[in-house]
Amino acid sequence: MSHPLAGLRVVELATDIAGPYATKLLADAGADVVKIEHPASGDPLRRWTASGIALPPDEDGVLFRFLNASKRSVPVDWTTPAGRAALRDVVAGADVVIDGVGALEWGEVAGRGTSLVSISSFGRTGPWRDRPATEFTLQAWAGSTAARGTDDRPPLAAGGRLGEWLGGGYAAIGALAAWRSAQRTGCGRHVDLSLLEVVHLSMAPFTTVVASFGGVATGRTVEIPSIEPAADGWVGFCTITNQQWHDFLVLVDRGDLVDDPELAHYFTRNERRREVYAFIHAWTRQHAIADAIERATLLRIPVAPIGNGETVPALAQFRERGVYVPSPEGRVVQPRPPYRLGRGTLRPPTPAPRLGQHAPGWNTPAPTAPADGAALPFAGLRVIDLTMFWAGPFVGHFLAALGADVIKVESIQRPDGIRFASTQQPSAERWWEWSAMFHGINAGKRGITLDLSRPRGLSLAKRLIARADVAIENFSPRVLDNLGLRYEELARENPGLVMVRMPAFGLDGPWRDRTGFAQTMEQISGLAWVTGFPDGPPMIPRGPCDPLAGLHATFALLVALEHRRRTGDGQLVEATMVEAALNAAADQTLEWQAYGRLLGRDGNRGPVAAPQNLYACRGDDHWIALAVVTAEHWRALVDLLGRPAWAVDPALATHAGRRAAHDAIDAELSRWCAAADRDALVARLLAAGIPAAPVLHPRDAAANPQMAARRFFALEAHPVTGTHALPGLPMLVSDVQQTVRSAAPTLGQHTAEVLQAILGLRDDEIRELEAEQIIGERPAGV
Length: 782
Known about the structure:
Blueprint: E1 9-13, H1 18-28, E2 32-37, H2 62-67, E3 71-75, H3 81-92, E4 96-99, H4 106-109, E5 115-120, H5 135-142, H6 162-185, E6 190-194, H7 195-203, H8 207-212, E7 227-230, E8 233-237, H9 242-251, H10 261-264, H11 266-271, H12 273-284, H13 289-298, E9 303-305, H14 316-321, E10 324-326, E11 333-335, E12 339-341, E13 382-385, H15 391-401, E14 405-410, H16 436-442, E15 446-449, H17 455-466, E16 470-473, H18 477-483, H19 487-493, E17 498-501, H20 518-525, H21 545-567, E18 571-575, H22 577-584, H23 586-595, E19 612-616, E20 623-627, H24 631-641, H25 655-660, H26 662-674, H27 678-687, E21 692-694, H28 705-709, E22 713-718, E23 722-727, E24 731-733, H29 751-759, H30 763-771
Parallel strand pairs: 1-2, 1-4, 2-3, 4-5, 5-6, 13-14, 13-16, 14-15, 16-17, 17-18
Antiparallel strand pairs: 6-24, 7-8, 8-9, 10-11, 12-18, 19-20, 20-21, 22-23
Helix pairs in contact: 1-6, 5-7, 6-7, 6-21, 15-21, 20-22, 21-22
């Protein structure tokens, strides 16, 4: 069988993680990726390690090798006239260009079938397009940092380089959407990706909508329970629903508190955290990790061991499923692509290229397809969305935003659980329609209700799927198995069906039937291990594993749709939530194996910049995020400081020297910042070309002038909640209006419309279904 993306020609002009990870995903599925590198310096990631260990002169870093397998390296100095001409020649033969260094403008690419995916901190339009930034400062601008931690310590950024991995996933699905559009119209698209918008959507999700809905605006918080001390280490819990919280109270021998209304709510529980921690830790410290996990699993409470770079590959689920595979060089094991196809094979990776190893030229011609002129990439695609919460609905939301007809299926007996994260009290009329996240991740869809637990409802669902291109679900595997919604049966009626299943841990393996949410994946994968202060517990980044899972499932779906376009065959696609997280934490397992270094928590310091930290300014809880990456940044900072004796020490001229003296530098910068006005100091730092940001509450993103200029927020007119601004996709797509195509559906809003138009049901049949409560518009029992 051929690779699904064989013949897709991609040029990569990118460094670090986001661009190379996007093209890694494309290469894994068979694309021919030409990596353009400067002939003298190459991609700086070749010489980078997360632990800071020095590499031999002839050896590329292990993360570089992971991200750049199966690519070709072509040397081009695009800053010279001759190099510019050579770059244009290479680009002229490409289907997609991924540009993370700002080498190309859309005008140089537009007018033919080539698409450009640009990746930048703020996007290529707007008043901030040229501001200096790092992921650390973007987290501060986006509102992620301000909401994490406790009030007795500084705010806390998520560890590692998580926003870059998320950006790479968005760039990959943007590339395939643009390519699909070019196949249909003959014209390429410009996908202008903003990492600021990526970070806001993924790491401070829908907080602006919560505020607009009148929800509680809180400061720094941690989830309770989350990562708690066990007798032999740390164990992670997650209680998203009220039932899970009640079951957790039973687990820790405090069933007497089940009816306490304050503890039932996340925010009021946080106000009583000393009391709550006391009884939680009284129980967890008496139980070993394995015992706590076994007991919680029996109660179907999401629970996990806390993984790190050393321990994760040895966990039973990953061993039995073969999640970690030998690298092409055979020196380490690495996470495989986080999805499995029923048809079409992924490419076995080949070693990352040496700098300038290849000459320009394309191996294979791109496949051609008749153009149908559709304006939007997914126009004409019908999707049955059986998913709940965030990761699953993410897939349908992306497709709907770019033209697909996405039909969201709920039931009045079991609505999407995220509806109950409402900003209104249960006494309010239609309070279940006031969930900010439900609105944000379901806008653009049509919504119906069907009780799948009864034969008539299940039969109608099967008939809808028989007339669809795609079906998506993210339940535990046993749920669809018990209902009888098996792919093999559905495919007999609809051979072209692409069915995407998104289990937490996989369709097989010893953890197959465990319940899991994003927080669980952050705990297991190592993402929590590197977030927190060195003297404190691991802390979950809180949420980004949902979009990570959604991004990779969307990518897998688009790969499967390309396979169907070429062959006519549908297929079953498995995209597991935890394996997406393991890919975003790949540097941890790779560093441990290659260099014997266990990456851990370092507060607000990070692996890229030194100094990097948060510093308190004048005023109540005012902080700035500052990151010095280059020697030029340091020289500019020294000048702003007035060139004090301590700062002109020659030892501080190098990154290694500044990292070694980080404590002393922090002490000096803390004194300097303490007397300064936060916003004025940020302005001075930015004007000097130094990455800096105020640590803003996530609700403040709604007033961000850069996001406003890029029309990131668009108005949703909803029949219950009224008109509010929703965040859109973190990318501008040329010739596609950034707008809310339709409001998030109310429960069962389009049931009659869909069943009549697609299945031909009569009015009397609709009334019968309503009378039998197979369909409806109000949750049962409410």
